[in-house]
Amino acid sequence: MNNVMNHRSCYVNFAEHLQNKWNPNLYYPEAPNQWTEDEWIRFFTMLKAFGYNIFEFWLPPTLFSPEMIKGDPIAIRFIEKMSLIIDTAHNKGLKVKMLCGVNTIGANWYHACPNDLNDRKLILMLWQFWCRTFSDVDFIGIFPGDPGGCNRNGCSYKTFIELALEIAEQAGNTNPAAGLEVNTWGTPFCCWDDDMHLVPGWDGSFAMISDKKYNTPEEPLYIWNGNQDRAKKAMEYFINRLPSFPKETIVAINLGFSPDGDATHGGDARQYAREVAAIRPIVSWDYSVSEGELVNYPHWRLPRMSSRRREEFACAPYQGGMVYTMTPKLNILSLYAGAQFLLNPNANPDDISRQFCSCIFGDEHAVLGELFEAFEVVQGWGHYPRRNWSKPALIKVYTEIIERLEAANMTKCNLPILPDPDEYRKDILWFARKFMDMAGQCPDRNLIKSQYRKYALAIYDYIPKSVDERTEEASDKFSNILL
Ligand SMILES: [Zn+2]
User: How far is the CA of 103 from the centre of ligand 1 (A)?
Assistant: First the structure.
């Protein structure tokens, strides 16, 4: 039985709030982490070798703004770089997907209202500009929100679908060769009407809608608030309108309408996936299964990643999925494994992990593949560890990781990876030592906090603070693991 999925996408989210040492910086000219052309070549060589056939990126809202496209140097620079990156990906045999929040505008993440005539014109104009600018992308992803969406002026899930249809029609002219992907993220769809909570007198700003003072015990977040009835209505409407989308349109739908693809929030999505698949091809877009957001560390979520792919394969004719990262120079084990599970959902996650470590650190250190599981102890989005650990057990494992990494001869690395193998080794060592400190007696957590900030997030000394305040919380969270 051939289980290979043909849509194997690696999604690098380099948005404003997710910048860090291991993520490319494409639009802050005075700041670090700008990848050279050679680094992009090595990155795509790595993706191809791992088994991906698509590179996916999100057009950050900072660029999706009327000020930017009037010749702002940041936009000019971004366009130059991104055009080169798209060419490089193509030369390496990868397709490119440009994902865009349907109505999220500017660095302040203004949620433009499609039911406001001027805002609607602005949305369509921006879509046209960016689709035309990157006319050679292979897929255009229409993303409902998070951030984005609207519940002002009677906006609802219907508004999103009708707007998506209009964007699809427009993209048919600017990008006739590109396939479209409509995403069902949310309960469905993220940030439209009841998915987003109500704030009286909301001005469309992210700052106001996400202000924690409006959160309630029933609605602890500003989004993900729809229930199963709402998801049903929205999906019925979408399925009814789906034949009007171009034939090549793909639908991204997870097994469940929750931030983790579970049957909570908007409920079980399996029947919808099957219904959609009868009309248009489906893929999954399971964001948090490989990696969370904000706190960066070497993830080890392989068993969940592989079981998710098997569940999808068993449930509906999925054509593939995507593997997300905000740390493409750090979480290369997750990237490797993610591609392997799309190529073969039945692959054994422990074998894959050992195989990777054997290729990277040498056969004698293949066991690092199972030891790295001890890094998956950080509470956060998508954290469902396979096992629990006592601190003494962790210390034993971290000790062995450190000894092995110190001894590894990186000239033996036989996988083409983007980070210099020795840099990669040093990064993992850095984390192993911090985790070791925090598992031990009386760690100096203030010191660790400032060390993490300096090591991982130094770029924020050069760039504006994100409107998403969670960025500022990352160092705090990192220094408070293993309490
Ligand atoms: Zn609206």
Answer: 10
